[in-house]
Amino acid sequence: MQGQNQQQAYDRGITIFSPDGRLYQVEYAREAVKRGTASIGVRTTDGVVIAVDKRIRSPLMERDSVEKIHKADDHIGIASAGHVADARQLIDFARRRAQVNELRYGEPIAVETLTKEVTDYIQQYTQVGGARPFGVALIIAGIANGEPKLYETDPSGTPYEWKALAVGADRGDIREYLEENYSDDMDLDGGVGLALAALASVNDDGLTTEGIGVATIDVETEQFHELTEDEKVEYLEEFELLAEDEPEENSEE
Asked: So where are the chain's domains?
C-alpha cells in the first residue's frame, strides 16, 4: 500500500523523477499516443511518403474534419498520432517557425532544424510545473538540399530519424512489417505501396479511400502533395488493397 501511495506522489509531479529515474507523466503521454490511429512514414530514393489511418467513428461525421496529415511548409508534411488538439498546437508552432525562418533568412527551413525546434518546445513541457506533456507523436517528412528526410517526435522531446516508421496503434506490428519489406532502393510509388500495405496488414477488411490519408513530397519538385480520392483508388487497386465493398470509382460532389 505504501508503495502505491509513493508511486501516486510521483504521478502527480511532472517535474519529479521517481526513485528509478522515471517520469511517469511522460510515460503516460506515450500511452496516449498508442490510443491514436496509426500513422506511417516511408523514406525512398526520390521522396518521402506519409500515410494515416483516419477511420471515422460514425457515418454522420464529416470525413474532411478528421485531420491527421498537415502541410507545415511547401516542402514539409506532418502526420500525427495521439491527442488531436495537442497535435494542432504543435503543428501551428511548426508552421510559425517555418514562416519565421523564411522571413528572417530568406530560405525554407531545414527539416532537421524544424524537427529539433518542435522537440525543444515539447521538452519544455516535461520540466514545467502545472503543465502536462503533449500526448502526441508526430512524423515530420520533407526534402532538405535534395535529400528526403523523415523524423519522429516523442512526448519526451526526443527527435529520431528513420528510414520507415509507424506511430500510434499497432505500432509494433506495423514496424515489423516495415522491417521485413522495406528496401533502400525503392522509388516513391513503391514507398506509397509499402505504407498502404503496412496499414492493410493490421486492417483485416482492407482499406477504403475514406479511411486513409496519403501525402508525398518528391525530390524533383520538393512540393507537398496530398493524394486525391482518385489517386488513392489507383494505388489501392494497383497493390490489391482495396476493400471489397469500396466502389471502384469515386466521384467528387
From this structure: 23-238
Buried b (16+ CB within 10 A) or exposed e, 79-91: bbbbbeebbeebb
Helix axes 188-200, 171-181, angle to 10 degrees: 140
Residue tagged 514496424 (cell numbers): 175
Closest CA to 89 of 118, 113, 123: 118
Give the three-class secondary structure for 9. helix
> For the purposes of burial, counting CB atoms within 10 Å of the CB of 111, is it exposed (0-12), middle (13-18) or buried (19 or more)?
buried
- Tell the CATH topology of 23-238: Glutamine Phosphoribosylpyrophosphate, subunit 1, domain 1 (3.60.20)
Which of 114, 109, 119, 99 has its CA nearest to residue 145? 109
Alpha carbons 147 and 208: distance in angstroms, whole number? 31
Cα separation, 137 vs 151, in Å, equals: 11
Of residues 199, 74, 176, 94, the one with CA closest to residue 139: 94
Given this model, what pLDDT does residue 15 score?
73
pLDDT tens per residue, range 216-243: 999 999 999 999 999 999 999 999 999 8
Task: Give the strands of the sheet with 39-44, arranged side by side.
Answer: 164-167, 39-44, 47-53, 212-218, 224-226
